[in-house]
Design goal:
This protein is of the alpha+beta class and about 300 residues long. It contains nine helices and 14 strands. The chain has three domains: about 90 residues, 3-Layer(aba) Sandwich (Rossmann fold); about 70 residues, 2-Layer Sandwich (Dna Ligase, domain 1); about 110 residues, D-amino Acid Aminotransferase, Chain A, domain 1 (2-Layer Sandwich). Strand 7 and strand 8 form a beta hairpin.
Amino acid sequence: MKGWIICKEKNMDTHENRRFQEVAQEEGIELELHDPSDFDIIATKGGRKSLIYQGQEVSFPQFVLPRMGSGTTYFGLAVIRQLERLKVPVINSAESIERAKDKLHTMQILAADNLPTPKTMLARFPVNVDVIEKEFECPLIIKTLSGSEGKGVFLCENREHLEDLMDILNEVRDVNVNFIVQEFVSSSKGKDIRVFVVGGMPVVAMLRKGKEGKFKANIAAGGSGEPYELNPEVEWLSVEASRLLGLDIAGVDILFDGEHFKVCEVNSAPAFEGLEKATGVNVPEQIYHYIRVRLGHFT
């Protein structure tokens, strides 16, 4: 079986991509990594190839794994869509990736189906602190619309902090940078649950804890992880969130909300170095086994 990973060249040597290559060898899978910028797309109804790689026609794989996540560009999505139109199985789809990379759109989709999520508002320029304070109580969260690994996330403890941050954002206003205001769920400060969902099944979960005094629990932000025993509520929330966004593979972040839970974010290309270290679960193996079953190649 032959597969491609679509990722940026600078990310080809990440832990996750090395693990995909390592396990592919063990599974007898011929795996290639390609940067989307190396492709040319031709829209044609004729019989000629409509996706060219580094100036040459190329034979297509039996599956493609996009691994760009929140960093997926318009061009990257175009390459994925073209592969879909050429009937190459792509896991995850371009549509699901586009939904997940937009944090507001994610919240809109989940809230429309009554999944519990933090209250969220799209901020606009010029930022009106009075409007934000009317809708939210401090402390509150400010997030860039697209991002991962805890980057672009800020905690405003009070109105003064909020005003200072809004002043900076107004001064360096960038039409390409949008952000959301989100309810701060205090019972989940410094901790959350990452559930890894593959093919509609929660294969493993990890409790993430931030550094002492920090509100972010992300492993990439210095947090730690330990195995978490799934309960029916967390299992259902993670599977349903993945389903609503159309994701075959997802990292679902769940917040503690008193005795219950809320869906915070859903990632289409989740990192799993910390997850594997904390739980011992072989994540690429789980993904490859799902792909084999889906394609009817399981042995």
